[in-house]
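Hi support team,

I submitted a single chain yesterday and got back a structure, but I'm not sure I'm reading the token output correctly. Could someone confirm the output below corresponds to the sequence I sent? I've pasted both exactly as they appear in my results page.

Thanks,
R.
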Amino acid sequence: MRGTSSAIHSVKDLTTGRTDGSLTRGHVAELRGSYLKIVGSAPAVGIAFRHAETGTIVRLDPTDIALNNPSRLLITIPS
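Hi R., thanks for writing in. Yes, this is the structure output for that exact sequence:
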């Protein structure tokens, strides 16, 4: 049986069009990949951002997920 692990293939800042990993706070980003759809309400389910320098984790509110498909997510980046 094949695994069903999530995989992100690309991240695009839809404000700037950049795909280098930089994201614009408060604006929309597109994630493409496989098995991305967010399902469930357990604390571990969802999207979290970790600050590269401080290690601080910010969890994305479910209302900030504009499109929730298995191969594509549109999310608003926290401010």
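A quick pointer for reading it: The mean pLDDT is 93. Let us know if anything else looks off.

Best,
Support desk
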